């Protein structure tokens, strides 16, 4: 219905004045709601609008049938706001440049529980839940889940939420570790302002590894590896508590302000907890992802800049397209370059803490960030570090392509070298089985195996028969349940046309719908043989209904199935 303006006399008077309202075209990802006010409001004046609306069909609200859940018994619904989908969930200023507090009352059917990204959660009678977020946040961080979910405590300010069939595994995987990461984060970046840090394990069709909804991070069930090997994704989401949620990019065109800083913060926490060699190894796998992304899209692609021009309209760039490796890994390189200019880790850590403190609860641009950096380090400003030839701040922001500066990852060499050498052995024409058998990979950490598989993939296709032997020799890899290993093994299977293991690709795509796992495999199948193209079509027609609508559309684009909506 039309928005209502309550009368100045306050409640108890007439019901309020109905206002003329119209929906105007805006972009392919939403229309604009125009409300005519009786008189132009003055700056600083408080205005109350009451908008009566219905929602539920749009892309921001996902309705899952029972078979799309882990438990397969009851339906499930969740919302996913980033980047510009929450406009289909509730009317809002759907831009990261506007922040607000919110409260919500949610009534659900018997046997269901509702949770939201809120600082307080209260269950009342009649299956009604009341939520309140007392800190200002941008629209994309409001999230709601309704499902058959239960919780278990894993720390003094943390609990895990999951479907009943997953709760034991979730508790076992995350008991105690979250608090450890939070404490390190607070030591590095300042107080954790959100009160609780809970984690919700989503159904397998959830398109992201994690979504940093404040107080309640959503994560893929792929993280339940059973051996705590993928907890670094949680470090990433925890890092967003400072970078992204507290200090936010004012536009999606500068998404690196959220993600580049969060990657840097994640790797700082990881260095404190797991040490430098391991963190450098993980960063090397990130660099490999950036390389793959730039090879797939072309270095000169306009999305491969840190400052992307968002152009609403048919041919322009949709804010959702900014979700790719560039803001993460090229952004990480730029933040690392700033640290390199400072030349002293504890000084740069102090800068990050001052930066968070200066801009907390605000939305900012790269100019704000870099201006504050030069103001904080006047001696660097004096030296003109923003215009060193080849490394100009302007070039970092506005030139597409490979980062001008790469941080030194050599401390990871002690973990990378054995993996590099083993990959060399497997890429050889005549396999030197004696040398291969001399390498014991039983003690290798997950990211060492991931790095090894990245090298094998780069060298693929391998000589005839080698991949088959590799598969037999390392069931730890070819039969892995760990999603990061499964992704890379599937890529290797496809690149080497190992038809006997195509079923593993199909199984993996049936088991989950994470965008970063799904799209690379469809790209690989579509760029391969007739057989892999057929596999792609067959797998997509079977799994499409369980994928998130954005992921469905991206896959359709890859497979050339009509114009993606």
Automatic annotation (TrEMBL):
<dbReference type="Pfam" id="PF17900">
    <property type="entry name" value="Peptidase_M1_N"/>
</dbReference>
<keyword id="KW-0482">Metalloprotease</keyword>
<dbReference type="InterPro" id="IPR038502">
    <property type="entry name" value="M1_LTA-4_hydro/amino_C_sf"/>
</dbReference>
<feature type="active site" description="Proton acceptor">
    <location>
        <position position="237"/>
    </location>
</feature>
<dbReference type="Pfam" id="PF01433">
    <property type="entry name" value="Peptidase_M1"/>
</dbReference>
<keyword id="KW-0378">Hydrolase</keyword>
<dbReference type="InterPro" id="IPR049980">
    <property type="entry name" value="LTA4H_cat"/>
</dbReference>
<keyword id="KW-0479">Metal-binding</keyword>
<dbReference type="InterPro" id="IPR015211">
    <property type="entry name" value="Peptidase_M1_C"/>
</dbReference>
<protein>
    <submittedName>
        <fullName>AMPB Aminopeptidase</fullName>
    </submittedName>
</protein>
<dbReference type="InterPro" id="IPR027268">
    <property type="entry name" value="Peptidase_M4/M1_CTD_sf"/>
</dbReference>
<dbReference type="GO" id="GO:0006508">
    <property type="term" value="P:proteolysis"/>
</dbReference>
<keyword id="KW-0031">Aminopeptidase</keyword>
<feature type="binding site">
    <location>
        <begin position="514"/>
        <end position="516"/>
    </location>
    <ligand>
        <name>a peptide</name>
    </ligand>
</feature>
<feature type="domain" description="Peptidase M1 leukotriene A4 hydrolase/aminopeptidase C-terminal">
    <location>
        <begin position="414"/>
        <end position="559"/>
    </location>
</feature>
<comment type="similarity">
    <text>Belongs to the peptidase M1 family.</text>
</comment>
<dbReference type="InterPro" id="IPR042097">
    <property type="entry name" value="Aminopeptidase_N-like_N_sf"/>
</dbReference>
<feature type="binding site">
    <location>
        <begin position="207"/>
        <end position="212"/>
    </location>
    <ligand>
        <name>a peptide</name>
    </ligand>
</feature>
<dbReference type="GO" id="GO:0005615">
    <property type="term" value="C:extracellular space"/>
</dbReference>
<dbReference type="InterPro" id="IPR001930">
    <property type="entry name" value="Peptidase_M1"/>
</dbReference>
<feature type="active site" description="Proton donor">
    <location>
        <position position="328"/>
    </location>
</feature>
<keyword id="KW-0862">Zinc</keyword>
<feature type="binding site">
    <location>
        <position position="240"/>
    </location>
    <ligand>
        <name>Zn(2+)</name>
    </ligand>
</feature>
<dbReference type="InterPro" id="IPR034015">
    <property type="entry name" value="M1_LTA4H"/>
</dbReference>
<dbReference type="InterPro" id="IPR014782">
    <property type="entry name" value="Peptidase_M1_dom"/>
</dbReference>
<dbReference type="Pfam" id="PF09127">
    <property type="entry name" value="Leuk-A4-hydro_C"/>
</dbReference>
<dbReference type="InterPro" id="IPR045357">
    <property type="entry name" value="Aminopeptidase_N-like_N"/>
</dbReference>
<dbReference type="InterPro" id="IPR016024">
    <property type="entry name" value="ARM-type_fold"/>
</dbReference>
<keyword id="KW-0645">Protease</keyword>
<dbReference type="GO" id="GO:0070006">
    <property type="term" value="F:metalloaminopeptidase activity"/>
</dbReference>
<dbReference type="GO" id="GO:0008270">
    <property type="term" value="F:zinc ion binding"/>
</dbReference>
<feature type="binding site">
    <location>
        <position position="259"/>
    </location>
    <ligand>
        <name>Zn(2+)</name>
    </ligand>
</feature>
<feature type="binding site">
    <location>
        <begin position="80"/>
        <end position="82"/>
    </location>
    <ligand>
        <name>a peptide</name>
    </ligand>
</feature>
<feature type="binding site">
    <location>
        <position position="236"/>
    </location>
    <ligand>
        <name>Zn(2+)</name>
    </ligand>
</feature>
